[in-house]
Amino acid sequence: MGWIWLLPLLGLGWVGVYLLSARPYQSSRSVAQAYDAWTLDGLLEFYWGEHIHLGYYGRPPRPKDFRAAKVDFVHEMVRWGGLEHRPAGTRVLDVGCGIGGSSRILAQTYGFEVTGVTISPEQVRRAQALTPPGITARFQQGDALSLPFAEASFDVVWCIEAGPHMPDKAQFAKELLRVLRPGGVLVVADWNQRDARHKPLNLWERQVMRQLLDQWAHPEFASIEHFAELLEATGLTQGPVVTADWTVETLPSWLDSIYQGLRRPAGLVRFGLPGFVKSLREVPTLLLMRLAFGSRLCRFGMFRAVRA
Predict the structure, then answer these.
(1) What is the distance between the terminal CA atoms of the chain, rounded to a whole angstrom?
(2) Domain that holds residue 191
(3) pTM
(4) Which of 94, 213, 246, 281 could make an S-S bridge to 116, C-beta 3.0–4.6 Å?
(5) Mean per-residue pLDDT over the chain, rounded
């Protein structure tokens, strides 16, 4: 209950207390259930589109359409990861693929053969429904801590914003690299926390992080530094892991995600009062995310590693 005092600071008062009910991480099943619910009600797709990740706005950030920024994010991640010159037919695993937005871009624009994996059976169903015939992207259910693929199955492993759902970050790092062939490339984009080993979190920061973890079924955020160390500790990387901080480039996403409710008023007609309440329920967490990333308590980390 220590987070309650934060709500008035965000201008939400006791309305926020009434609307806010936690979705704490319990197991991989609780993560699957959360994404099943978001997929079935259609709200997240309506407002966020097919790409359930943040957008890329440049450095310094430039005003952009929210959905266009998400598409730009995929292309920027391809370039940052050095994937743009990979040949057609490159085998890519998209870990935590959501409803397949990024997978379809990787297949359609770059000619890659993409396999998307998600813990949510409803996301698999929706991803399949959204994928036109002829697009070389397929989807299946699976747990990122025990990927249902043989060792050295893929040329590229791609992952956006799945890490916070993983209770065992070392096992997650190992699995991402295990399924890569030697010389294959891992490219990860993730929400991270400031490295508390060097600057411990104060009481206020611990309360904020607890709320962010409990709202969206996250057991823990890793720091950029620690997750890079975990990747290298697997003994499966060729040389050091390359990292970058895209906090500035992605920061406008949080407020833009809230503005979607104003920019797309058709949602009020489509989803009615229950949908409006569900949407409003997410606003305090989105504002807390903006606060955390804006204050550098959280950071948006990029990781690139080559399989030994």
Answers:
(1) 47
(2) 2-306
(3) 0.93
(4) 94
(5) 92
